[in-house]
## 1
Amino acid sequence: MGKGDGKPDPVPAVKNAETTRVYPLWDVEKEVKPMQFPDASGKRVNMMYPTDASYWKKVKDFVDYEPLTAIPDATRSALLSIGIVKGKPFAPTAKQQEMLKKAVEAAPRMILARRQVGRDDQRQLYYKDRQWETSWAGATAEWMQYGTLDANQRAAFFQIAYSSAAAMVMHTTGAGSKYPFATKDNTGKFLDGSNTYKLHLPPNPPAALFWAVTAYNITDGTMPETDQLLPSTNGYYNIPKNQDGSIDLWFGPNKPEGVADSAFIKTVSGRNFLVALRLYGTEDGFYDQTWVPDDLVQTNK
């Protein structure tokens, strides 16, 4: 999580995690075998869902592997309409395969387009004069708004995030978490990895636990693949501060001269990206908007 003085030591946490065993309650505990935890540190692993015809095979494997109740009735009904049923062969015709291929290729583009354009009611914007957005414009942890499931907002969220939690929408000072993100600079242009940007954060980010800033690929929420270990920095790092306690973070394909490593996040030239500001244990300054992050500004530095 951090580096330098005061960083958390991950060794005890890893050792504790490796003692975990998950098994059905009806199993005899002493007969349960230890779980395996392969060390993937330093290895590049593609954990993304496919966006080609192989997607449907993965869906079928998931349906067969998981218990029936793991999938909501409405979802199982939709899968039934295309021939995916637990325990039964999935053998689409050539015509069906063509249609399924078109669907899995078009869906991510449609979701991205909706997310980029934004909502008609602009509910996704945190501030009237900033580009920062919330993926939780669906209002509740169940993506309900005005008594209706906001399927579009849910799809937009899970295209760039792998999980959700009720804590992400709670409004209790010092608890829960908030993840404002930006896809555009202060002029409204989409963030381009070929450019250099500066992000100015006022003093004392309102996070009782810790805060972090991370860059993600705009299309799917994966991290930009660069020679930087992680496209992220956080409050545990030794980031240089301005005289008033504020900090400046930099994004771009090359680190500007004079910028500390801890204040720089590398991007991929020619690829759009988004920036997420992660506030863990969100405090009053965020809710009452007495603490407001600046927009990213393109610079020539």
## 2
Amino acid sequence: MGFGSSPKSPSFTKDRRGWNSAWERDLATVFGSSVEMTFTSNRSVPNLTAGLPKEYYDMMLADANVLNLQTITSQICILQRDLTRKSSKRFAEDDFESDWTTRCSVKEREDFILEGLVRACQASPDFEEHRKWYQVSIRSSCPELTLKRLNHGSGQGFLDLLKKMTLQDLDKIPSEFKTVPNVVYDKLHAIADPKPHPGWVLAKKSCDSTRAYLLTMVVWNILLAFYGESENYGLVKGQRTDPGQLKRLKELGGSDVKSIARETAANRLLGERHCTSCGLPAEKAGVATLAACQRCKAINRLVFYCSKKCQAADWKTGHPPHKTICGKEGAIAEALLSPVPAQVDDDDELFPAPNPGYTRSPALLHQLKLLKENPQVDYVLVQPDPHPDHGVVLQDAMGGMFFKLCMRRAVCDRSPREVLMMFQQLEPTAQGAPGFGVAKLKKQLLKEYGVDVDAVKAER
């Protein structure tokens, strides 16, 4: 199967709606076709990673397999950070939520969704071609990805999924990708054993990474398509699997594993090396070639960097820090299985972390970014390009302190009263700001905090 082609008939290159309908029929046989996802009554519920031969779990711990998993994890984390940056700006400046739900027709949203699905499958043939046990494909690990589910509620299904994929920090690349809970998928991949084989844990993480990668890639490409943008992707050349292990894996897994092995080998030919730290290939990093870590190369582990800066960053703060695994066989599996230490929040005390259960909106994340970049202002009235934003500086010292106290609470938890008081302090500036006005201020606060200040007033 060639890169960019499709195993479904018809292919997305000939009839993308027919191609998608074929996929959705397959999904419906397992998960039903309603918006709410449940297993159909005539199907048993398999566990896709439990009960595999011990030899398979042992192979999952091989250095090459673990490093490939870590590479994919890093790629997902970078993509989710980029998605968070892009969506926060679009929500705040361009009113994406309203454009998507009220200004797009059902047909227009379907076209954007189909474009995102096709682009994702073109970006990596694994997303469509790989087959797992019980004939469950990678796309079948993402039952959310149907036109009905993404388009329901005037497109609210897509917005909900996008918000679940975004992070709470626009700058940091996390050590672990963000997952989207799903009762169907979680049941398929549950680990009930209190002391599971480490290889089982990695097998589940591998499935989780595939699901997270496809969900993020589809959401990312739908957003890009909506704004007439696109991005070229290159396959990451993975570590070469030990031939002896691959032979045993084929013997254990039958035709499905043989098919995966063939496709993985083909993908390696198409792939290119990427910098372990920034994730860029040599061309995009602006260098002729990437440099390999020589100590890791000596144990047949291939780790590459585009610059001394990236190498130093990965050595100190990589996931895991490279100094803990450099040239050490088996160390990367141990690091990947170890609990991730809590990241130290080095932000100032103005914007503490949100309370448990509270998720900052993309528009609010954009506001916090602007305030960090412009510490001399108390708030920013956001306008779409090419119109300039308007920074607000509260002249009364006591009023400024009170405003910051209200905002400190509002960015950490739902706080309608505090948002109303913020509105009252910002209202005079909004009235006089060129091209802005009170109505736009109300709309901005609604996008940022989910609070309708008029409704809060009416309740008082």
## 3
Amino acid sequence: MSVGTLTINFKFPVVKYNDLILARYINLSKEGSLDIAVVDDKSIKFQSELKLASGTTLLDNDVFVELAKFTEQKELDLDLYKLANEKLTLKKFDVLNEELLKLNSLLDLRTYIKDTVEFGLEDILVWGILRSNGLMGSILKNKNYINLTRWYNHMELYPVLGESHQFIQQECKNLKTSQKLKNAAEGKKKEGHKANFDIDLPGAKIGEVVTRFPPEPSGYLHIGHAKAALLNQYFANQFKGKLLIRFDDTNPSKEKEEYEQSIIEDLALMEIKGDALSYTSDHFDLIYDYALQMIKEGKAYCDDTDVETMREERGEGIKSKRRDRSVEENLRIFTEEMKNGTEEGLKN
């Protein structure tokens, strides 16, 4: 007899794999204990929902704790549970990195998180959360997490974990099939998707088109990067031109060689290969000279307005109070303060 129904929302940015895996794990030991449903609807605001036969309904982060009560282990490390939900779901690498290094150290001489003979609730929890984090693909390639990678890959060998994504995909496929059958019965016809690359480039000539993809090596490749790279490659190929990849390495405090290498590898996975690779820093002298020229011509100025005020002024169309600085003052700040990295220069 079913004790309740777990519903997973696949359209939510962070899919609750940990809840799904735990429910399937429970059903392996107590067949039919939980009904599992998958919805593919962005209008639904929950990540996961557990409706118990008793009439109680739980949402999102409360679901896993409740499901844990149906296992032999029953009790969950709540401190780890809180940390995992707060930190391991983040897409900010600097914060995520700190926690992953701790986890990597913990797993140094352990097969499982709690140093048990078999995996437990904590392993399901952490693995499921990491599975839903889009950064994991690049993280698993990083040699700094050798123990974490070993553990993650080992856990994935268990079908109840490793096949969780296929389970959701199959359920979504079944949903779409059911919807198509329903639409057909009601005489509805789905409008086709009209997105394409059929974009006109006036004046473009075969062999003369040069496109550029300029990622900043301060993080991993994301969907915005991928769209830009694919579009630029398309037009370069369409007009038998060139695609230039130029790393915009102008912010050394945020950049790492690790990110640069990861971006190149991910581009290769998408079969994107530039005709030339360059760096903005290769042209700093030229950029500096142009900046000087623009200041002398009154076309550029130095501005130490704080970020929030600047953002507000831009939104309201209000000119900066520094816009009317004299050419001489701007040249002094640029060549003496900014160039030498003084306290005043760093504010501009």
